[in-house]
Design brief:
The chain is of the alpha+beta class. The protein folds into two domains: about 5-90, Ankyrin repeat-containing domain (Serine Threonine Protein Phosphatase 5, Tetratricopeptide repeat); about 110-270, no CATH class. It is about 35% helix and about 20% strand. The protein has twelve helices and eight strands. A hairpin with a 2-residue loop joins β6 and β7. The model has no long low-confidence stretch (mean pLDDT about 95).
């Protein structure tokens, strides 16, 4: 048969029922065949689908097979609520990353809840410094304006909220993409790192990383799981923060907010000057 079973098995392992996984296993030439450098078992572990994991293991899938920069299915399971028996262990740094994920996600409490927002997470820079770097003016914003802009952004396109948090600051716009624009991230990242993201309601989450004024990575997919990560640390970060895009950006930049006020009650509001911020 052709290779259709491979992609179908991998998809089912991550998203479908154990019954569908079992049916596809019966068609498989190799249950441990790799697709995008991972096996079907790895995908089931990553997606926290313990019933699918059990079906794959019963059919002979190898939990110890090395892949994804050292994250075998068994080792990855140690970063889930359904650990598999294994002699592999997590490092102190990896355990700390898991604890920080739990703390950070709880602190945000699901905020922001809707798509259409943008943010910039800047390491080592406070809100006042961000205001200066952007050559912006501080403005007063009312609750009524926020609600109006979330429906009709006209008049608020260049307005951002900014909040100092442990590790740096967060800039956000709940009604548009401005916080993630190249010109904003380039100015904010002078001498440091800035992670920007736009939660596009139509195209998914798109993220960029700027270091010292230049783009370092322009194809992040915050919260969308493990895609094309390049290191073991990147794999763990993407795994831990699937479905948590804002928390992913905060963690990537090393920010540790204690609550959700960066998105609900920012320290100050700023208005950017008239200029082209499409380019840094």
């Amino acid at each position: 048969m052709g290779d259709d079973w491979l992609s179908e098995l991998h998809w089912a392992a991550e998203f479908k029922s154990p019954q569908e996984v079992a049916e596809l296993i019966a068609q498989a030439d190799d249950i441990d065949a790799m697709d995008e450098e991972r096996t079907a078992l790895w995908r089931a572990v990553h997606a926290s689908r313990p019933e699918n994991v059990r079906v794959l293991l019963a059919a002979g899938a190898d939990p110890a097979r090395s892949m994804m920069y050292g994250w075998s299915p068994a080792r990855l399971s140690l970063a889930t609520e359904h650990a598999l028996p294994t002699d592999e262990v997590l490092t102190d740094e990896e355990r700390a990353a898991i604890e920080e994920r739990d703390r950070l996600v709880a602190a945000l409490g699901g905020v922001p809840r809707d798509d259409g927002y943008s943010l910039a997470c800047v390491a080592g820079v406070d809100a006042e410094t961000a205001l200066c770097r952007l050559e912006a003016e501080s403005v007063e914003v009312t609750h009524e304006q926020i609600q109006e802009w979330r429906t009709e952004p006209q008049g608020g396109e260049t307005v951002l909220g900014v909040t100092t948090v442990p590790g740096g600051c967060v800039l956000m716009q709940l009604w548009g993409y401005t916080a993630s624009m190249s010109g904003v991230l380039g100015r904010l990242s002078a001498g440091t790192v800035a992670v920007g993201m736009y939660a596009n309601p139509k195209g998914g989450n798109h993220g960029d990383v700027y270091r010292d004024g230049d783009v370092d990575d322009w194809d992040l997919h915050p919260g969308e799981g493990v895609v094309e990560e390049e290191t073991a640390a990147d794999v763990l970060l993407a795994h831990l923060y699937q479905d948590e895009p804002a928390a992913f950006c905060l963690a990537f930049a090393g920010l540790r907010p204690m609550d959700d006020r960066a998105f609900t009650a920012p320290d100050l509001w700023l208005r950017l000057p008239e200029r082209d911020d499409w380019h840094s």
